[in-house]
Amino acid sequence: MTIRLDTLPNGFRVVTEEMPGLESAAVGVWIAAGGRHEAEDENGIAHFLEHMAFKGTETRSARGIAEEIEDVGGHMNAYTSREAMAYYARILKDDVPLALDVISDIILNPLFDSDEIEVERGVILQEIGQALDTPDDVIFDWLQEAAYPDQPLGRTVLGPADRVEAFGRGDLLRFVDRHHCPGRMVLSAAGAVNHDRIAALAERTFGHLRRRNPPDPPRARFGGGDRRGIKPLEQAHWALALEGPATRDPDFHTAQIYATALGGGMSSRLFQEVRERRGLCYSIFAQAGSYDDTGLMTVYAGTGVDTVVELMNVTLDEMKRCADDLSEAEVERARAQIKAGMLIGLESPSLRAERLARTLNIWGRVRTIDEIVEKFDAVGVADVRRFAGELASNGRAAVALYGPEAAAAAPDLDSVRERLAA
Fold it and tell me: DSSP per residue over 47-73, as a string?
């Protein structure tokens, strides 16, 4: 595999990884601007912008954009997260220039036609409605809000319906002008790619953009809180978040191993104790998420009203116990799961392209797989036990609960903190 990186004079970066033997490629542009870059009255604008990119340019109609890629058997998509936006395609190797032309066109030349804005507004409002009907979407939005209250990182990516109903063409243009800067953009491609050809296309397409310094989002402040909602659901949905390490924190890799050992698979502590041994739920898991300046260690479970208290207490006790008796075998198994998942994922050009873009936006350079594996290999049992103990005792926690009225009597945030710290 050959990774090459070029940076244009305006700061726009082009990174590729050639994967011999493939007939296809993945190519896209990642922009380090997402939900947390929005002002309060802009909440949801980045996601709205993502939708509008596909609704027509100066030379292509919305249908033309879709047909041009699908006529050659490819597919194109996009996403918005709290820290980034991405527009990407998977195509055959001979169609890489076409994909780059379409992607650059929708990023640089969107029409933002008023009629199309109204159509897409309706689509997004339907998407918001669908999310509000999905308990495990609701619970994680509430948890995020409880963890980071009154700040961009705590708001939903979709935005509230009343904001979405008010957005106009000027709002979209202002967000693009403020945040879509070449220094925050990465063109990433992997698979059957030719770096020199892609770099030349990038220079011709993005080289004219003016170098400028966009505003940074406000630093996150973990607040912690307790968010509960009543709805006559079949189950109570419970989620816990503890403040975890940021992406570049020395404990990042330790947190990943801890989360996997705690609740990352069928062999994990929570799955075995809460589901297999006690039968308290169907779904339970833990995960470690990170941002530029903060992170979340999250546990989620759905259970019956009559078992929610026991489930919460058992979960908290298992989290505490990791600090005392997490074994070498558990750490090795978690490490193997993480490494295997990472290496298996690298067989996909799409995941490789995304990895290249993400590491550039986070680290300013491409981290090799060997470097990442070495970081995970350096984490020992003592490191994970120490991390588990600090996590449980620091008191920085947030709780969200959503379900039938009787579930509201489940332990509150203070009780959760006390049980973890005991």
Answer: HHHHHHTTS-BSS--HHHHHHHHHTTT
Q: Supply the angle between the helices 252-263 and 369-377 in degrees, to the nearest 10.
A: 70
Given 3-state DSSP classes, what are the helix, strand and coil percentages for the chain, each rounded to the nearest 5? 50, 20, 30
Structure tokens at 412: 């509150």
Give the separation between CA 98 and CA 78, rounded to whole angstroms: 17
Q: CA torsion sign, 307 to 313 to 315 to 321? A: negative
Edge-to-edge strands of the sheet including 85-92? Answer: 2-7, 13-18, 185-191, 24-31, 85-92, 75-80
Angle at 218 between CA 216 and CA 246, to 5 degrees: 90
Instruction: Tell me the per-residue pLDDT of 217-240, one tens digit each, with 9 for 90 and over.
Output: 999 999 999 999 999 999 999 999
* Catalytic site includes residue 50: yes
Q: Cβ(246)–Cβ(294) under 8 Å?
A: yes
Which residues have CB under 8 Å from 339's CB, separation 6+? 373, 376
Query: Are 243 and 296 within 8 A, CB to CB?
Result: yes
pLDDT score of 1? 65
pTM score: 0.95
Which position among 17, 38, 42, 50 bears the catalytic label?
A: 50
Asked whether the beta carbons of 80 and 155 are under 8 A apart, the reply is no
